[in-house]
Design brief:
Strand order of the largest sheet: 1-2
Largest sheet: 2 strands, antiparallel
Helix content: over 70%
Number of strands: 2
Number of helices: 3
Structural class: mainly alpha
Length: 88
């Protein structure tokens, strides 16, 4: 994987994570870097659960990436909401 392929992978994964954040009511704080990390992990989760289904771009299957990212965004927002609710 070359540097250009890696950059395209990061961009596509970030866009998929951005779309996943729009599907889930709560969002994960952070900018592009957080979206890229959530997108990469979401692509891995979605690919593991669903497989390579649907169209792909820059070696990223879009449907599993968006669904995996939505699952991850939901879990992260659920966990962060739980930590915010506790007081010391």
């Amino acid at each position: 994987m070359g540097i250009l392929s890696f950059i395209l992978f990061l961009i596509v994964a970030s866009v998929c994570a951005f779309l996943a954040e729009r599907l889930v009511p709560n969002s994960v704080p952070g900018g592009f870097l957080t979206s890229a990390i959530v997108g990469i992990i979401g692509a891995w989760i979605g690919g593991s659960l669903i497989g390579h289904v649907g169209p792909d771009f820059a070696d990223v299957a879009l449907v599993p990436c968006i669904l995996g990212s939505a699952i991850l965004v939901f879990l992260l927002s659920f966990c962060s909401r739980g930590f915010r609710g506790r007081s010391a």
